[in-house]
């Protein structure tokens, strides 16, 4: 790795300690103030780096196009933001043969990545609520899930994501990153970032873990309870064709929930970061960070009659002689 990308601005703490009248601390004397971080990047397979980055570029384009078709969806905006936070920087670093990211850029990337991520969990939980009302209380659906209620729930999801990150966002910039400025990841994930942080990080670490557990477990529990009621209601439907339609309505959501939660459980439900090895987790992170946002629009719309009809109408309009179905 080229030294020019690993340069950090060093500020000795001797003068500060003298002004404050405190005894020198050997750990702080050797501390450095970083102005940039080095991203280790993706898992390396000799001769396959170009193929991997080309694949990520294609997946990113699919994410933009797929979610762009249903841009009015809150989940689509989240997926676009979630991938755009880190994929362009990842690709630019590869093309320019650089691995660095500025200090402020790194913290901003981490904040927005988790803002979109936490908000996505809340939105997916609200989708399970929507499915529950649609199947268990179909006659009351229009009066309960009004546009105004949906808007308020979406706003609450965004504010919930913001407030979950408020404390750590204020504390991270003040941490001394003494041991190293090399982040063993392809973006500024919270775990690898805290692992290279010095000082007393136990409070932030514990809070991040508790918030992660709360967001993941509470949303998963709510989703599971919703689907217990949904399945119970579907099984009481006398018509097998109506049962199939009801299960079909929930299938897309269940697929996304299964993929997302299984990958996030592996990556983020860890009580400490100092003893964690992130090399093995980077491949799994790609699933929740790139693959899920790409799959979401296709999974959610493949059974949506209105979306498919709109696509066919657009194709018939733009392509003369296109067969009608």
Automatic annotation (TrEMBL):
Alphabetically, the GO molecular function entries are: G protein-coupled receptor activity; olfactory receptor activity
Annotated Gene Ontology cellular component terms: plasma membrane
Q: Does the keyword Phosphoprotein apply?
A: no
A Pfam family matched in the record:
7tm_4
| Membrane topology according to the record | Multi-pass membrane protein
Task: List the protein's name.
Answer: Olfactory receptor
Alphabetic keyword roster: Cell membrane, G-protein coupled receptor, Membrane, Olfaction, Receptor, Sensory transduction, Transducer, Transmembrane, Transmembrane helix
Which gene is the coding source of this polypeptide chain? LOC103066420
PANTHER family in UniProt:
OLFACTORY RECEPTOR, OLFACTORY RECEPTOR 6X1
Q: What is the lineage of its organism?
A: Eukaryota, Metazoa, Chordata, Craniata, Vertebrata
Q: Would you identify the family this protein belongs to, as annotated? A: Belongs to the G-protein coupled receptor 1 family.
Compartments, record wording? Cell membrane
Q: InterPro entries this protein is in?
A: GPCR_Rhodpsn, GPCR_Rhodpsn_7TM, Olfact_rcpt, Olfact_rcpt_6C-like
Where do transmembrane segments lie in this chain?
Answer: 57-80, 101-124, 144-170, 207-235, 247-269, 281-300
All copies of domain G-protein coupled receptors family 1 profile, residue ranges? 34-300
Q: Does the keyword Membrane apply?
A: yes
Species annotation? Python bivittatus
């Amino acid at each position: 790795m080229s030294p020019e990308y690993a340069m950090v601005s060093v500020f000795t703490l001797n003068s500060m300690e003298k002004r404050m009248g405190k005894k020198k601390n050997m750990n702080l004397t050797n501390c450095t103030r970083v102005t940039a971080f080095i991203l280790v990047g993706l898992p390396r397979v000799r001769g396959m780096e170009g193929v991997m980055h080309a694949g990520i570029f294609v997946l990113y384009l699919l994410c933009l196009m797929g979610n762009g078709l249903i841009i009015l969806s809150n989940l689509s905006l989240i997926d676009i933001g979630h991938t755009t936070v880190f994929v362009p920087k990842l690709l630019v670093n590869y093309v320019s043969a650089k691995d660095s990211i500025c200090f402020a850029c790194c913290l901003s990337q981490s904040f927005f990545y988790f803002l979109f991520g936490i908000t996505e969990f809340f939105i997916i939980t609200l989708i399970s609520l929507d499915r529950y009302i649609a199947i268990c209380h179909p006659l009351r659906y229009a009066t309960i899930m009004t546009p105004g209620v949906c808007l308020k729930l979406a706003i609450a999801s965004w504010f919930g994501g913001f407030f979950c990150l408020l404390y750590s966002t204020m504390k991270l910039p003040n941490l001394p990153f003494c041991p190293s400025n090399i982040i063993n990841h392809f973006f500024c994930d919270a775990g690898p970032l805290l692992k290279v942080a010095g000082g007393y990080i136990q409070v932030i670490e514990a809070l991040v873990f508790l918030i992660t557990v709360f967001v993941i477990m509470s949303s998963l529990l709510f989703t599971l309870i919703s689907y217990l009621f949904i399945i119970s209601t579907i099984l009481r439907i006398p018509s097998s064709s109506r049962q199939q339609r009801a299960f079909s309505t929930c299938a897309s959501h269940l697929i996304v929930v299964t993929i997302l939660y299984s990958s996030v459980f592996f990556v983020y439900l860890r009580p400490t970061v100092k003893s964690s090895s992130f090399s093995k987790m980077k491949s799994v992170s790609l699933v929740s960070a790139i693959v899920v946002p790409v799959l979401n629009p296709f999974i959610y719309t493949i059974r949506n009659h209105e979306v498919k009809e709109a696509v066919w109408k657009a194709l018939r309009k733009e392509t003369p002689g296109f067969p009608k179905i």
